[in-house]
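Lab notebook, bench 4. We co-purified these components, and the gel suggests they stay together. Before we commit to crystallization screens, I want a quick structural picture of the whole thing.
Request: model the full complex, all chains together.
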Amino acid sequence: MAYRMVGIVGGIQLTLMLAPVLGAQVAVPIAVERRLAGRMHLAVGDTITIGTAPDSVNSKAVISSIYEPAPDPASVTRQDLHLRMHLPDLAQLLGAPDRVDRFGVKLKPGVSAEGAAAELNQLAFGFRAHPSRVIASGSSQTFRVVSRFHRAIAVISIVASAVFLLCIMLLKVEERKPDAAVMRLVGVRGRIIFGAVVLEAVLVALVGSGLGVLLAALAGSLTNLYYRRLFDTRLVFSLITPDVLIFSVALSLLLGIGAGAVAALRLVRTPPLVLWRR
Amino acid sequence: MAFAWALRNLSRHRLRSALVLLGLAVTSAMLLDMILLSGGLERSFEQLLLGRGYQVRISPRGTLPFDTEATIPNATRLVTTLREDSSVVSVAPLLGGSIYARMSDSLLTLFGYGVDPMSQALYQVTQGEDLLPADRNGIILSAPAARLLHAGIGDTVRLVGVLDPQMAQGRAEAVLVVRGFVRWLYDYEGQPSVGAWLPVMQALTARSIGDRVSFIAVRIRDGVAVDPVVERLRRGLPTLEINSVGDMVAHFRDRMVYFHQLSLILGTISLIVTLLLVTTLLTITVNERLGEIATLRAIGVSRRRIVEGVVAEGVLLTLVGGVLGTALGLATARYLDAILTSFPGLPASISFFVPRASGLLLAGGVLLVAGTFAGTYPAWLAARAPIAATLRAEAT
Amino acid sequence: MRALDLKAVLRVDDVYKDYPMNGERVHALRGVSLDISPGDYVAIVGPSGCGKSTLLHVMGGIDQPTAGSVSIDGTVLSSLSDSALTRLRLLKLGFVFQRFHLLPVLTARENVELPMAEAGVRRQERRERATRLLAYVGLENRAGHRATQLSGGEMQRVAIARSLANSPAVLLADEPTGELDAKTGQEILDLFHKLNTDGVTIVVVTHDDRLARAAGRVVQMLDGQIVSAP
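Here is the predicted assembly.
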């Protein structure tokens, strides 16, 4: 089993200050993320001083590049700012040479991550190996909670909408009792009236669903626009996927037609003279 | 009389009224939940922060307590300086980090707190005793830690720190006696945490060098305003982050901005649906009763009385729907809270939906206004209907 | 200029009424003048669409004439604000409609009490008066029944009792027997006769020949004009 060591920046606190180049100290190359560069008005080639405590900011660094970090939903609200250094430079700065927080290990094709992790853990002292998938699953727990919450809210909203829809359909149908009464009295079959009301409900549900999709798309665009600006990120906050679209439209059609059918059934089951009397 | 009349009018169409009330109950429940959510989390967090009476937190610059692994150096000197301040009643230095317990030939990972038992802001003793002053041999456990370690009061626990993979051993070890069980205020559900005297934990986590702590909590004397003290500390300690509880709640609010906005948006939508529901019902029933209304106007009932009657129906609907919605809303709040409090790493004592009288009153008040407003358009319709034309239309 | 009847409690003076219908102007009343004196029992008759009901509505202040004036007890209706006109209808006029127009959610007694409550009469007094009025129209045993529980004739009698609640100067009735069978209609006819005998001034619009014959004066209308008014 082969392993390749990839060092990454650990969690340290850095204080950055812009300062003129002083003395003959060799400046270490660093890469700063775009937001940090924007906030401190930094450009490639600028020399700054960095340190691990507010009262010891005296190590020189030169900005070799400005990068855009991969958007991380787990930390989007924290607004942390990052920079990157070569591992030995950071270890030197921290006064902890030859120490890292973690390793990332890329396995040869066909090698099982679980097996590799288990083997490492048998050998390990002072560290643990985890398959990346497990880490990802663990760190996704927050979003699973948010998803469950959204689902619960959606269920409540759907229940409210269904009741509202049924209410409106019943009210609208009741408004047309005299018309239905006349139709029944002149001999139009109940089935025809039922079909007419349900057809109307289908049309209303279709148009309503279409409008709902447009509204959702608009709301989603506004949500993404707003939160992207708020958090200065490229993350997508609201996304209408095909399955979400299909489910939403299908459910709204079902609810609309169902409400119409219930209202229509009430109408045709009431005797015409009772309808007429209002 | 308007309400008695409204009640009878609503009873004319029981199914219709029942459906509307059901709809209003659901929307009112949603509105109440969003009101509880909008300030609940912050209130809960604030209560947690003030749980032991410490109003100020001092942490490494640019961080919040336990936000990162950064530490404050020269803690003893800083604590002494703070204790000399006449506004300060108590100073609690705290250290937190991973620590290990040796069980047979394996190591269990725990979270270790280093505390000063004479002034601490992190726990409440639930069983047994607290650590002794300058206790080099004692340890306190959370219930999950006690279960994990199979340790009771009086048992010994072997803690290991500063693990050396090369040597396959810990460079720091301590055997400590369990003094008691505690509830750590900031622990998540099931978190296995242990606590020892600060120097003991510093030694175990290699924080002795530089005398480092994670943060310091400060309690201000009663009657002294907190904000001026915070400002003074900021001027005196520019390399550290000084936050009052209010500042921390504000930071927290910024991080939880999503819930604020969600509660605002969903609350607004609930209100709009409530308005629509009541307005639609009343408009349709007014249209059905135009003949009746025209007759009332004809026999001398004033427009004002007509408007009162319609508005009373709207208010009655939203009030009854609101009462039903309160019961439903409190139940759904518990359910939603159970979902959100399962966030990993969230302190177990935090709630998102905090039932409070002000929230209930606000929801009730908003509903009342909405019900009144919802009746306005149909009431206007009713009052403006031309009497003769309406009676003519009714006759045909 | 026509002669002034100084005793007139209700005076209609050269009234015109036009209203739009399907894009055209309908001339419902064309220069109608009529005086009603205290104690009169006047029937306004004519074919459908001649303007009878419109004239009644204008007389009762529930429709405004396009030209001309209506006055009740010397007060010109067009000089009143909407709330003052409403108040005048409450205290000076009583209305009876073809379709009764009782409030279905109220009992017979409550329907009769309604105008009194609006006039500010105290609860005990209006309750007693309502009971007396219902007894007058022969419905004392049905006082506690909801309007929906009454027959057509009973509903119309309750409507008549309601119209008398505030002791009006004039009782205006629009086709009061229009929805009733012959027998029930006769009962209403008899009641109107009794009312007039007891001093109530009545103006009734009707197709019913029996009502017309029972009235003291018959005013014939055609195409928005009075063609005969003894």
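The first strand of chain A starts at residue 15 and ends at 18. Worth comparing against the SEC data before the next meeting. Residues 129 and 135 of chain A are 10 Å apart (CA to CA).
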